[in-house]
């Protein structure tokens, strides 16, 4: 029996906040804020088919459907952008004479303040890499483009492949366990909730108060 299919975008949601992911995937809840709207507008522009083009030595395609149905991955999704750069050490695409190095470009509206990239964003691109390498062969590269600073950041996907692969397998196993049980993960300690669009639905501060009340009730029951 094959495992539950996982959408690539949901991996980023889970790693950002498992509880938020559970509200989205299990409770089917949704709420937007300015950050979500900003990201949606950026991706709407990026996914415009008019953005596809071919120039000398380079081909650019947006909204490319990808998948990897090998266990334990069983992933599917869509790239923001896939670039094909002519490279004699690359791969042939659909029997073409030219050979290409594939580069994944993931678009994000805002660059993190104190780091080059967020780990959850990197793992989203790594999952895309597993799918593209599965479909086309080769060993594709990945970058994140940050709209606010108009800058690309190269990701060390090839250099740390085994580390990321082990982590992804563990993450997918956790996600599938929650999905099969229909259980929403608890809020993590030190979870940053200030910019989350689901904050009003999640009410993390109220949950903390309720957790304290529950603990007090347990102590009182035990002392009777």
From TrEMBL:
Write down the superkingdom of origin: Bacteria
Record key words, sorted? Antiviral defense, Exonuclease, Hydrolase, Iron, Iron-sulfur, Manganese, Metal-binding, Nuclease
- Report the GO molecular function annotations: exonuclease activity; iron-sulfur cluster binding; metal ion binding
User: Which cofactors must be present for this protein to function?
Assistant: Mg(2+); Mn(2+); iron-sulfur cluster
Q: What class of enzyme is it?
A: hydrolase
Tell me where in this chain the DUF83 domain is found.
10-203
**In the record's cofactor note, how is the cofactor described as bound?**
Mg(2+) or Mn(2+) required for ssDNA cleavage activity.
Annotated GO biological process: defense response to virus
What job does the chain carry out? CRISPR (clustered regularly interspaced short palindromic repeat) is an adaptive immune system that provides protection against mobile genetic elements (viruses, transposable elements and conjugative plasmids). CRISPR clusters contain sequences complementary to antecedent mobile elements and target invading nucleic acids. CRISPR clusters are transcribed and processed into CRISPR RNA (crRNA).
Kindly provide the name given to this protein in its UniProt entry.
CRISPR-associated exonuclease Cas4
Source organism (scientific name): Anaerobutyricum soehngenii
Question: The organism's lineage?
Answer: Bacteria, Bacillati, Bacillota, Clostridia, Lachnospirales
